[in-house]
Amino acid sequence: MGKVVVLTTGGTIASVASSQDGLYSSGRLTGSELLGMQDLGLACAVDIESVFQLPSNHLTFDLLLALRDRAAQALADPEVDGVAVTHGTDTLEESCYFLDLTLDSDKPVVMTGSQRVPSELGTDSFVNIRQAVLAAASPQTRGMGVLVLFNERLYTARRVRKMHAFNPQAFTSFGYGYVGYVDKADVAVYQKPVSRERHAPRSPFPRVEIFKATLGGDGALIDAAVAAGAQGLVLEGEGRGHIPPAACEAVSRAVAAGVAVVVTTTCEEGRVYPVYDFAGGVRDLTARGAIPGGDYDAKKARVKLAVLLASGVADPAALARAFAA
């Protein structure tokens, strides 16, 4: 085996207990301190760099761009086989998709984290790190984009979702499943994505907000997002992508103001599709200028919309093609 670069960013996996109140201080451990706590028994060479030491809910698009740049630099080194990234679990599903959309390399990038801090009984920190490194070093994972390794399973960035607040089986891919696994030192892949997108953000990331449809809701929050300067809006509709009729005029106002509006569904499986002719249905929303978001969940759609807009893709037809992929 060759060499893997491990980039650490903080999160539970780098946390320590406070001596005063028993709560945890997130991201206190550097990468060298974290990986030095236990012999991981790795056959490959490992370079370690602490990029951030933050809880993952503190991350921003600009910080993720800095992480992307550091990962791209490591991947460009011909001696490096792949990159492993440790990350907090709260926003891991968003960060991995951001990197998947913006990194241009066929070498593996594997992200992981933990649900239990390194000093906690039964911690999942070290097995997840070890297996993420093994997956990043494996030729099996080349060309798959960014992957998430958690609890021995591999997931694609496009489909992975956090499903549990504290259990070590924290992630899944609803309707699609995991694409492989790491068993001891063996990496096995039995599914691969059929396509992958790559985009190059070149302007500041715009404000993109999520509006969650609820029973009896109206468009006040949509209007507020537009007034606050949002350039993109993701509607997390119910069922096939439906929103309350009282919110529809706010959607029209947002589109008229030049805001890109994408419709998603709150359901774990299935896609947005025009089935009904009522106010707030998908046919109504697309007639008002909204874009169907396929089977994207709202958080992934927000990441994608922000990356597209920052990459200069703003034409509604181009955005519609991107979300139809």
Structural commentary:
It is a single chain. The chain is of the alpha/beta class and 325 residues long. It has 2 domains: 3-189, 3-Layer(aba) Sandwich (Rossmann fold), CATH 3.40.50; 208-324, 3-Layer(aba) Sandwich (Rossmann fold). The protein contains 9 helices and 16 strands. It has helices at 31-35, 61-75, 92-102, 125-137, 220-227, 248-256, 282-287, 298-310, 316-324, and strands at residues 3-10, 16-17, 24-25, 45-54, 80-86, 109-112, 146-150, 153-156, 161-162, 171-172, 180-183, 186-189, 208-212, 232-237, 260-265, 291-292. The strands form 4 sheets. It has an 8-stranded mixed sheet with strand order 4-1-5-6-7-8-11-12, sandwiched between helices. The chain has a 4-stranded parallel sheet with strand order 13-14-15-16, with helices on both faces. β15 (260-265), α7 (282-287) and β16 form a beta-alpha-beta unit. α3 (92-102) runs parallel beside α8 (298-310) and α5 (220-227) packs parallel to α6 (248-256). It is globular, with a radius of gyration of 20 Å. It starts with a strand and ends with a helix.
CATH topology of the largest domain: Rossmann fold
Q: β content, as a range?
A: 15-25%
Q: Major sheet: size, sense and barrel closure?
A: 8 strands, mixed
Estimate nothing, just give the exact number of structural domains.
2
How are strands sequenced across the largest beta sheet? Answer: 4-1-5-6-7-8-11-12
Q: What's the helical proportion of residues? A: 25-40%
